Amino acid sequence: KGPVFINPGGPGGSGVYALKRTGKSLQRIIGPNHDLISFDPRGVGATTPNVDCWSSMQSRKIWALQDVGVIDSHPGILYDAYARATALSELCSTKFAGKGTAKYTSSVSPAEHDISSFVSTTSTARDMLEILNRGGWEKLRYWGFSYGTMLGGMFATLWPEKVERMVNDGEISSKSSTTKH
User: Fold this and answer.
1) DSSP result, the chain
2) Per mean pLDDT, which range of 45-49, 73-77, 103-107 is the poorest?
3) Integer angstrom CA distances of residue 30 from 14, 100, 142, 150, 174
4) Confidence class for position 98, pLDDT limits 50, 70, 90
5) Burial class of residue 150, CB neighbours in 10 A (0-12, 13-18, 19+)
6) Which residues are registered as beta bridge partners of 142?
7) Under a CB-based contact definition with an 8 Å cutoff, are residues 113 and 106 in contact?
8) What is the pTM (predicted TM-score) of this model?
9) What gap in Å lies between CA 166 and CA 5, rounded to an integer?
10) pLDDT higher than threshold 90 for residue 56
11) Is 116:137 a contact under the CB 8 Å cutoff?
12) Rounded to an integer, what distance in angstroms lies between the CA atom of residue 129 and that of residue 142?
């Protein structure tokens, strides 16, 4: 019956690794008559160049050790998780504000060639459309989790005529999306 596109969210979640990890369970839910398709959005997972907000591997590991834990494990953990996500977003925004991780050689100013200018929700939605078109499929079937909800919404906003079915399995506050999408 055609493919179902999957996005695990994040932002920053690898669709490839998530599908490897959870594909069998998702296939049981969706049914054997659909293929599952996922991909890594620009700058994430196995893509190159990879967008990295950390100045060193040590900083990344220290951040990982400070994880807030399992949601619902204690009162207030959602606030802790939100504060942590906000801090990470601000760290990345600060790092990429006019600097970026990769510059391209040209006469244009570095800020215009900051790699982060090529990484956005709109760019990822366009990449989804390209995968859909190259696969020869007319309409999108999509299941997005967490940030994948925002990505699905962006796709549906840009190309509503291309959406057959969409499940957006998560909630994103408009306040939490202060960075460029």
Assistant:
1) --EEEEE--TTT--HHHHHHHHHHHHHHHH-TTSEEE--PPTTSTT-SSPP---SSHHHHHHHHHT---STTSSTTHHHHHHHHHHHHHHHHHHHHTTT-S----SSS-GGGG-GGGG-SHHHHHHHHHHHHHHHT-SSEEEEEETHHHHHHHHHHHH-GGGEEEEEEES---GGG--S--
2) 103-107
3) 20, 39, 11, 21, 29
4) low
5) buried
6) 5, 166
7) yes
8) 0.70
9) 9
10) no
11) no
12) 12
For residues 169 and 145, is the Cβ–Cβ distance under 8 A? yes
Burial of 24 (0-12, 13-18, 19+ CB in 10 A): exposed
171, two tokens:
């909630």
